[in-house]
Amino acid sequence: MASKNYYDVTEWPVGNPYEDIGEVINSIIADIKSRQTDTDVNKGGKPGAVIYIPPGDYHLGSQVVIDISYLKIMGSGHGFTSSSIRFNTSENEWADLHELWPGGSRILVDIPLEVNDEEYKGAAFYVERSGNPRISSVEFSDFCIDGLHFIEDGSRETNPENTYTNGKTGIYVASACDSFRITGMGFVYLEHGITIYHADALTIHDNFIAECGNCIELRGWGQASKITDNLIGAGFKGYSIYAQNFGGLLITANNVFPRGASSIYFDGATRSSITNNRLHSFYPGMVVFRGNCSENLVSSNHFLRDHEPWTPFLGIDNGLDDLYGLLYISGNNNSVIANHFSEGINTQNIKPVGATPVIIRIVSGNGNYISNNHVVATEVHAKISDSCFSAQVDALLTTEASEPLTVTTVLVEKESLQNTILDSGSDAQVVMDKTLNAFRATPTPGA
Amino acid sequence: MASKNYYDVTEWPVGNPYEDIGEVINSIIADIKSRQTDTDVNKGGKPGAVIYIPPGDYHLGSQVVIDISYLKIMGSGHGFTSSSIRFNTSENEWADLHELWPGGSRILVDIPLEVNDEEYKGAAFYVERSGNPRISSVEFSDFCIDGLHFIEDGSRETNPENTYTNGKTGIYVASACDSFRITGMGFVYLEHGITIYHADALTIHDNFIAECGNCIELRGWGQASKITDNLIGAGFKGYSIYAQNFGGLLITANNVFPRGASSIYFDGATRSSITNNRLHSFYPGMVVFRGNCSENLVSSNHFLRDHEPWTPFLGIDNGLDDLYGLLYISGNNNSVIANHFSEGINTQNIKPVGATPVIIRIVSGNGNYISNNHVVATEVHAKISDSCFSAQVDALLTTEASEPLTVTTVLVEKESLQNTILDSGSDAQVVMDKTLNAFRATPTPGA
Amino acid sequence: MASKNYYDVTEWPVGNPYEDIGEVINSIIADIKSRQTDTDVNKGGKPGAVIYIPPGDYHLGSQVVIDISYLKIMGSGHGFTSSSIRFNTSENEWADLHELWPGGSRILVDIPLEVNDEEYKGAAFYVERSGNPRISSVEFSDFCIDGLHFIEDGSRETNPENTYTNGKTGIYVASACDSFRITGMGFVYLEHGITIYHADALTIHDNFIAECGNCIELRGWGQASKITDNLIGAGFKGYSIYAQNFGGLLITANNVFPRGASSIYFDGATRSSITNNRLHSFYPGMVVFRGNCSENLVSSNHFLRDHEPWTPFLGIDNGLDDLYGLLYISGNNNSVIANHFSEGINTQNIKPVGATPVIIRIVSGNGNYISNNHVVATEVHAKISDSCFSAQVDALLTTEASEPLTVTTVLVEKESLQNTILDSGSDAQVVMDKTLNAFRATPTPGA
C-alpha cells in the first residue's frame, strides 16, 4: 500500500493492538493530524484516512478520541454471537462450547471505570470536536465492539451477566456531527451501543446491535437521518431505538427483537417515520411517543407482543401494565395507518388483574389519524424453555388453538380530542368520546 | 498484512485457486482451526478470519466445508450478467459478444456430481456444525457464484440451458445458524442459490440472485431474520423466496423479477412481514401462504402480473390457472393492506377458458383483514420479442389503449370465515358469503 | 497482492493519481483489456478487476472511460461535508474552519470544459459500450466525487457557489447497462450526480448525494431497478430523483432533503413504487407524475413541505405555486395509499395570494385510487437563520402553537375521471366532480 492514508492496526509501530488497540488508533489519528495540517492545498488538504482492523481479539484499554473528519474505521467481521445464551449456560457446559466469545474484528472494551465516572468515559470510541464545521463523515464499518460482561447493579438479578449494566458504550458522539455512517457493525454486551448527540444526515444501516442495555440513542436534537435495515434488541431496562427532539428521522426495515423496555421511543420527535419495521416485544409500551411528538407516520409495521419464554428472564418486565398500550401516543397530528398488531398473552398474566389490554393509546394531543390497523389478540399459554432459541421459535410459530382475547384496540384519553379513528376496531373495541373524535368502526362479520 | 487472520486465496501456498478454490479455502480453514484452538484466552480466542477473493475466474471442484464461526469470505465484484440471454443467443453470434461469462470475484461451480447425489453435495459452500453454540456470524460478501450451465432434465425443454436444473447450490447451511450475513453477492445459473436451515437473525441484504432455479430457501424453521433490498428472480420451476415455519421474517425492499413459479412462498410462516416490495411475475400464485400461515402482514407491495414476452420461454408457465389468485392465502388473521395489484393479460390466454381471474384468494383460515388494496386489471395484447430486455421494457411501459378486464379482486372460499374485506373491490368484484364475512365495497364512481 | 486484478491507484506506474487520477484509471483499464482478451478460456476469461482508491485528494483532469464489464472502483470513505455551508460562510471565517473541503477517497473533478461542451464531456466517469451484451456489473463504491465549485450562470444569484451549475457530472452511463451497483458513495457540488441511460437491474443504494444540481437521473428508458436507502438532496433547479419511461422501479427508504425543485419526478414511468420514503421540500411539486405515469404505487411516505429557513436561499423557489399540488399526478390507475402529508406554511407567502393550497392534485388520467392519506396543514411563522443546520432543526421541531391552515387535500381536475378518493379529506377538502369520481369523506369529529 503506497498510500499513507491507509493504516492497519497490526502494522502500526506504536503500541500493541492486541493489548490496547485504543493506544494504537489514537497514535494513528495523531499521525494523520501531523501529516494533514493544511486546510487548503490545491483544493484539498484534509482527506482523512482509513484504519483497518483485521479479524482478531483486540483489547481496548484507552478510549479512542476522534476529532477529525473523514476517518473510517473498518474491520472484516461483525462477529456477533449470543453472549447472553453463553452466560446463561451452566458453567460446567462451557468446556464443550465451540466458542465462548464473540469474534470477527473484535474490540474488547476493557476501559477501567470508576463507579461514578461520567457516562462518556466508558465509551470505546469518543467523538468530540468544537468549532466549525461540524465533524463530518466519520465511518464505522464491519467490526465488533464487545463489552464482555455485565456486572452486579444492586438489583435482585441473581446472575450479574443479566443486568445489562457495565458503564460501557460502543460509540459516543458528544458534539454535533454531519453525514456519519455506521454500517455492518456488531455491538454486544455494552450498556449503550451507539449514543449520538446532535446528528444530521446520519446513517445507521445494516448493523447487528443486540444484548446491549440500550442500542441506539439519538440525544439532544437532530434531523434528516436514517436508521435502516438493522437487527436490534436491547435489554429489558433500555431503549432499542431512542430519538430526542428529532425531525425527519426515517426508521425503516429494522427487525427489532425483544427484550427492550421499548422498541422505539420518541421524546419530542416530529415529522419522522416509523414504517415497515418488524417489532417484537415481551412488554407493553413497544412504541412510545412522549413529550409532544407530532406529525409522525407509523405505517406498515408489524407489532408482536407476547410473553417471555426463556427461563433466565422469567418474571422480568419493564414495569408497564397492559393498560399502557403497545403504541402510546402523546402528541398532535400523527398518522398510524396500515399496521398489524398481534398480542398473544395469557389472561392470568394481565396487569392489572382483569383489565382489558390496550393496543393503541392516545393520552394527549389532538388530530391524530388512526386508520386501517388490524389487531389480532389471542389468549396463549406460553411455553417456557431453558433454550432461548427454541423457546422463541416455538412461541412464534404457535398460532393454532388460540382463543380470542378481548382488547381495547384504540383508547383515546379525555385529554385528547379531534382524533380520527377508522377501521381499527369495532365499536366496542374503540374506547373514547365518540362525540369529540371521529370514528368509523371496522365492519363486523355478520353485522 | 501483518495479521494472520487475513487470507488472500491467490497468495495461499496450498493448492491453486484458479484450478480448485475449494481446496484452497478448505486449507485456509484448516489453518485457522490449527491456530485458533483455545476458546478462552484472555477473554477471546477464536475470532475467525477473512478470506479475500480478488476478481478472477476460480474453478471450484472441492466443496468448501465451513464449521467455524466468524469466517468472512469476501470478493470485489458480484459479477452478474445474464447467462440466460447469452445461452439463448444463436451460437454464431457468440464470437461477437464482448463477454460470454459472468465475472467479478467469480466462483465457477465445477463439483462433479452423480445423478442421485443428495442435494447438499452440489453446494459450493456447505456449512454444518453440531453442538453448541450454533455456528455464528459467517459472512459472504461481494463475490459471484456461477453454476455455469443448466442441463437436460427430461422435460420437453429443447435448450438444456433453460431447464434451471443442474444439481448445484451456491450456499447451503445445514445446521442451525445465528447472525449470518450474505450481502453484495451475485448468484447465477445455480439450481439453488441460497439454502439455509434453521436460521436465526439472518441477514440477506443487497444481493443479486437471478437466473437460478430457486433463489432463497429458508427451510426447517427459523426466526427474526431479514431478506431486504435484493434483486431476485428464479426460474419458472422454483422459488424466488421461500420460508418454512418461520416467525418474524421481514421481507422488504426487494425487487423480485419474473420468472419464478412464485415470488414469495410461505409454508407455515407466521408473524412475518412482506412489505414494500416490487413483485413481478408471468404467472398466478405470486405470493402463496400454505400450511396455516397466520398473523402475517402484506402491505405496500406492488404486484404486477403479465405475460411472458420473451420467445425462448413462450408457452411455459407454473401450472397454475387464473383462478388460483395472485395472492393465495391459507391461514388465520393475516393483514393485506394498501397493496397495488396490476394484472395485464390477454383474455384469450386465460385458464380455464372464460374464467374470471382472481387477484386475492383466501382458501382457508379465519379472521383475515383485507383492506384498501387497489386492483388494476387490463386486457393487453402482449408483444413477443427475441430480445429479453426490450421485450420486457416494452411490456412494462405499455399502458395506453388497454381495456379493462373483469376480475374477482377478492375471493373467499367457503372454508374460510370471519374475514374482513374493506375497500378492495366493488360488490361484484368481491366474491364470498357476505353474511359470514365482513364487507365494505369500494365506492364506485357515479354510484 | 498476488492477483493482477487488484489495482491500487497509488501504486500504478503510469501517471500520478494526485495530479490526474483519470489518466491512471484509464491506464489501468487499458491494462485489464490487454490482459483479458479472450472471452472463453476454460469457462471464463474476462472477470474484470477492482481498482482501489485509498483516502486522499485526487484531481481528475482526464475523463475515465469505462467500456468493460465487471469493473469495480472502490474507496474507503464517502467524504461528504457541506460545501454549501462552507461557501456561504464569510471568507474571513474560513481560516478558523477545521476543514474547507470534502474528504475521504475523494475525486476532485477538474475536467477543463468549454461553454458549449456536450453534457457527457463533464463527467468524471463515462460508461459507454455498443454491441452485445450490455455492459454489466460495473460497481462504484465508497468514494467521493466532488465538483469543487459552482459558477456564475447568468442568473441573478449573487454568490456563484449557489447556482448549482458547473457542467460537471459524477457518473454518466450513456449506453444500455445491466446489474450496475452504486453504493456507499458521496456526491457533492456536481451539476449532475448520477446520470444513467437505459438501466436494467440497477442498484443505487446507501449513498449520500447532496448539494448537486441534480442527484439521480434515469433517462431514456429502463426497468426493474432500485433506488434505496439513500440520503439525497438536489439544488433548487434540479431533480433529486428523476426517472423517464421506467417500469418496475422501486424507490424506497430514501431520506430526500430540500431543496430540489422536486423530490421525485416521473416522466412516463409505470408500474413503479414510491414507498416508505421521507420527503422534505421547500416548494410545491414534491412528487410529480408527468407524461402518463400509470399503475404506480405511492404508499407509506412522509411528505413535509415548509419554507426555506436559511438566509442564502431566501426568496428562491422552483417557480410553482401552491395550486400545483405537493403530489401532482398525470396518469391512470395509480395508487396513493397511507401517506402522511405535512404542510406548514405562512399564509402571507401563499401563491397566488389568497389561494387555497393543494396537496394531492390529479390533472389527467383516470382510475386513480387515493385512499387513507392524512393531511396536516398548519400556519407557521417560519424563522430564518444564518445557520443552515439550526434553522432547519428549529423549523422541523416547531409544531406547537400552530394554527390550522385551510387546504384542498385532493383536487381532481375535470380532465380526469373515474378516480376513487377515500378517507383523504372532508367533503370540503376534496374538490372534484363527485358524480364522476367515487368519494368517501374522512369522518369529521363531532359530525
From TrEMBL, chains A, B, C:
Residues 160-305 form the Periplasmic copper-binding protein NosD beta helix domain. Gene3D superfamilies: Single-stranded right-handed beta-helix, Pectin lyase-like. It comes from the Bacteria. Pfam families: NosD. GO terms for molecular function: inulin fructotransferase (DFA-I-forming) activity. This is Inulin fructotransferase [DFA-I-forming]. It comes from Paenibacillus allorhizoplanae. CDD domains: IFTase. InterPro entries: NosD_dom, Pectin_lyas_fold, Pectin_lyase_fold/virulence. Its EC number is 4.2.2.17. Keywords: Lyase.
